[in-house]
Amino acid sequence: MKYFKIFILLIISQTAFAQTAIIKQDINIKNMVNDVSAKNIENTVRKLVSFGTRHTLSDTISKTTGIGAARNWIKSEFEKYSKESGGRLKVSFDTFVQPADGRRMPYPLEMKNVLATLPGNNPTDNRVFIVSGHYDSRATAANDSTSTAPGAVDDASGTATVMELARVMSKQKYNATIIFMAAVGEEQGLFGSTHLAKRAKEEDWNVAAMITNDIVGNTYGEQTDLKDNRSVRVFSEGVPATETKQDAAIRNAVGGENDSPAREFARYVKEVAERYVDQLDVRLIYRKDRYLRGGDHIPFSEEGYPAVRFTEMNENFNRQHQDVRKENGVDYGDLPDFADYNYIQKVCRMNLAVLANIAKAPAKPLNVGIVTSDLTNNTTLKWEAPKSTKPAGYYVLMRETISPYWEKKIYVTENQITLPYSKDNYFFAVQSVDAEGHESSMVFPKPVR
């Protein structure tokens, strides 16, 4: 079998753990990355803040105040982008009734996610990628639906990111479908994302990956006095929430606790985002979310979909979930003047690079396995082509067991390879790639005979 070692991916410094992938950029994707506008993002954040509060229980009748006015405006903006895309971007409310729970839902309430769906251009490719930010906000008291709750960073920053993605990306075509989601009810209990994740499962959507952008607009940590406008955290689960006993047995036998689909997608995010976005350090955080906290990716994880969270490096807790006020010379409240719009632009560009590459790429290889019929210090991997589109080839990836990132890529055009490296000492994965270099996410192999 012929194969070619094409490059070593990983360059690690002792402080930053930066990864540099030496690979040709797609000029169309690079142009889209450059088209992301910090000014557009700032205008969107300030418009969302202008509704006073976007609390889930707030006014739904007013045209200028409350969550109803906010969601109607978001929908109208998506509809503008749809016209610019020639009508290909499909805009809708995803409406549901959330029952009372005796805590943060005192009564049943009709809620609405705002969705903008960009259908894939390949009729044989049923993959769906979902990217979200939540448009609701809150003040100090969880059920205070009338006080000012600007929510500029938490999470107008994520909503503005998703809206700018829809504006830029809807002008291009992709193999797979992309859903841009402004989610409702995150602060009250992940209600909007839970509804859409369950709907996706019930309707048998092939959700290949989900990203939520939540708190992506601040670069200063008030308690640590650190400013960081380069780093973005990516949270991903290790052991899948839907793991079966059989899956667990295999994972324990091969040492795959750090190679879930979500972890592989997180590694993909780091490699591709840093390929396209300058002055960016993607920090992979190997836990589902922040300590004892959660976000809109979790309901998708619980339905078995690979889902990750993007969040700023240092949160400012004087801003989050705070009544707007000034005490002892300190400003409290999530106000738009304190957001870093160049940083949100960088996060948006990061999202775009990842989504555009993976939605243009072929689907992942199927039935990826390491052959275990013989004891040997070589490693033989084999796999099958995805059914939707035949890739131009595949990358076989390697890393040492102590490495958090893939270290080598080996290009092959066949569906099997034998490498002179022991499966005892290295981890392996396989990804599909098309003729233009767009890669699928990585697939961690299972043992096969």
From TrEMBL:
Main location: secreted
Coiled-coil ranges from the UniProt annotation: none
Keywords, sorted A to Z: Secreted, Signal
Domain of life: Bacteria
UniProt keyword annotation of Signal present: yes
Signal peptide stretch: 1-18
Pfam families: Peptidase_M28
InterPro entries, per database record: FN3_sf (IPR036116), Ig-like_fold (IPR013783), M28_fam (IPR045175), Peptidase_M28 (IPR007484)
Record keyword Disulfide bond present: no
Subcellular location as annotated: Secreted
Domain Peptidase M28 stretches: 113-317
SUPFAM superfamilies (UniProt xref): Fibronectin type III, Zn-dependent exopeptidases
Protein name: M20/M25/M40 family metallo-hydrolase
Source organism of this protein record: Pedobacter segetis
